[in-house]
């Protein structure tokens, strides 16, 4: 198992390296990075979610099972948020950074990095559990997460319903809802359409990792300083939080594969959407950008370590 984990991570790191190299070529630049970002977020991932919904919920009964199990990841993420609130107070995180801290600790980058890692580790049988966690993660981020960014930021004013709905109804969610509608209404999908969706879905992992590499290449590391707040977030996000989630899911009445999927998601970096919303809500968005980059790099090293521990001690069995 541990050899497979290391090979999986090395494969993803290699793709990130390709993105890092491409970003330095004169024919790529910012326009190329933007293309990778837009294509991944607006085309590849929605097709990925549509395909996954059809494959994991082929019948109405399977669809019902998916939604009846949703309270478990909601409970897991909500408990993590409560822990983050306590830690933010104990660690005396600056007021303007507190919303970023809470979001960075609680919400994982499930789509761009989480799904490729989980499916590489556990195969497509892990998709139902991954879909449930993704729905819970998205729903809570665009409600409680954005509220906390606004609460501790400088923008002030209430969060509008339109902003919340636009966040929840992202292209990836719309792709998933389209698949849900097809399953619910038992609509036939033409073979040519399904074939095109399958082809586009297959580009998700490569493009997502290449995009991450482009972002890392464009980061000005000379401006990064190891502040106390940064050190606290990294330690909590990549050390304390996975341990907390691991203990929590071990006690929950769910199957072994679901426990492992939720645990792996807990080792993922901070959400990329947090950086965008931090800027819009008046929070410290530069701090958010640093956190996203640092946790993305370090999580690639943390995943083999955690999976090695899980395998060696036969956890979640």
Automatic annotation (TrEMBL):
The chain crosses the membrane at residues 6-23, 66-88, 100-122, 134-153, 165-185, 191-218, 230-254, 260-278, 285-309. One of its GO terms (cellular component) is plasma membrane. Its main location: membrane. GO terms for biological process: transmembrane transport. It is found in: Cell membrane. It is a multi-pass membrane protein. Keywords: Cell membrane, Membrane, Transmembrane, Transmembrane helix, Transport. Belongs to the auxin efflux carrier (TC 2.A.69) family. This is Malate permease. It comes from Intestinimonas butyriciproducens.
């Amino acid at each position: 198992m541990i050899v497979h984990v290391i090979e999986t991570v090395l494969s993803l790191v290699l793709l990130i390296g390709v993105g890092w190299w491409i970003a330095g070529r004169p024919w790529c630049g910012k326009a190329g990075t933007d293309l990778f970002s837009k294509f991944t977020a607006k085309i590849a991932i929605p097709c990925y979610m549509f395909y996954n919904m059809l494959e994991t919920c082929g019948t109405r009964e399977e669809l019902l099972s998916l939604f009846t199990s949703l309270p478990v990841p909601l409970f897991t993420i909500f408990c993590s948020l409560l822990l983050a609130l306590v830690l933010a107070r104990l660690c005396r995180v600056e007021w303007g950074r507190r919303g970023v801290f809470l979001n960075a600790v609680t919400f994982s980058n499930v789509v761009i990095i989480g799904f490729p890692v989980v499916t590489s580790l556990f195969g497509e049988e892990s998709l139902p559990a991954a879909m449930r966690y993704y729905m819970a993660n998205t729903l809570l981020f665009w409600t409680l997460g954005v509220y906390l960014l606004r609460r501790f930021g400088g923008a002030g004013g209430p969060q509008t319903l339109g902003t919340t709905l636009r966040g929840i109804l992202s292209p990836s969610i719309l792709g998933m809802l389209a698949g849900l509608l097809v399953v619910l209404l038992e609509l036939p999908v033409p073979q040519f359409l399904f074939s095109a969706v399958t082809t586009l879905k297959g580009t998700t992992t490569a493009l997502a990792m290449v995009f991450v590499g482009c972002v890392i290449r464009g980061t000005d590391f000379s401006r990064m300083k190891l502040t106390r707040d940064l050190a606290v977030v990294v330690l909590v996000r990549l050390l304390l939080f996975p341990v907390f989630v691991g203990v929590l899911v071990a006690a929950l009445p769910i199957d072994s594969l679901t426990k492992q999927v939720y645990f792996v998601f807990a080792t993922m970096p901070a959400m990329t959407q947090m950086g965008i919303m931090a800027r819009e809500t008046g929070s410290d968005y530069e701090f958010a950008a640093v956190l996203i980059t640092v946790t993305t790099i370090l999580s690639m090293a943390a995943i083999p370590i955690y999976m090695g521990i899980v395998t060696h001690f036969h956890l979640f069995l």
